[in-house]
Amino acid sequence: MKHSLNLPNRITLGRLVLAIVFVALLSQYTHRTPETWKLDAAWILFVIAATTDFLDGYIARKYGLITPLGRVLDPLVDKVLVCGAFVLFAGSGFVDEHGRNVTEVQAWMAVVIVVRELLVTGLRGFNESMGKDFGASIHGKLKMWMQSVAVPVILFVIARENSGSLLGMGGWIKAVLAWATVIVTALSMVQYLVRSRYILEESAPA
Fold first, then answer.
1. Which sequence spans correspond to the domains of the chain?
2. N or C end of the chain, less CB within 10 A?
């Protein structure tokens, strides 16, 4: 266990703390009585957490510090950050006085994102239990990159709309990011299913 708590894993644990604080802070936001500082603090926390995600992965690969703990913990933290953000985006905290969700994230979009993460986690566990490598593909990395851009930008845009410093384009920016994220997420889910198909067929009883 002592060996497992190397530098990349300690960074990941720190990122888990940031993710918990991020979700807790965002869950306290109510758009009907907006406190813009919460949005600003949330997007800053998310950017820091996303940056350390790339950092711990780089260090682990460069210095051969990949461990079983890190392989489990790293994607778990990603799920806390991303799923937490999109579930809250689709929730009542971001509904204005007219009943409109200001994030442009609909409930079904959050469901797609959560289902994708749960499905891929299950497929990864199954494939690796069969001795097959199931690391992140280019589609999975693109999905994470898209989500890492969408969440803080949506928060930043809403914060600027609250202060009246962003007019006109805010709704389009949020809508494009929300739709692009859910499309890329869905496509990455399909790609992981295709990767797993042959292993699932091999393991099926004759």
1. 7-199
2. C
Q: What is the phi/psi pair of residue 136, to 5°? A: -65, 135
3-state DSSP call for residue 4?
A: coil
For the chain, percent of residues with pLDDT exceeding 70: 85
Query: Quick check: 47 and 152 in contact, CB under 8 A?
Result: yes
Given CATH 1.20.120.1760, say whether it is the number of domain 7-199: yes
1 pLDDT band, cuts 50/70/90, is very low
Average pLDDT over every residue of 73-84: 89
Question: Is the predicted pLDDT of residue 164 greater than 60, yes or no?
Answer: yes
Q: Over range 87-109, report the average pLDDT.
A: 95
Give me the chain's average pLDDT, please: 86
Which residue pairs, CB below 8 angstroms and at least 24 apart, start in 190-196? 191/137, 191/139, 191/140, 192/119, 192/120, 192/123, 192/137, 192/139, 192/140, 193/119, 193/123, 195/123, 195/127, 195/134, 195/137, 196/123, 196/126, 196/127, 196/134
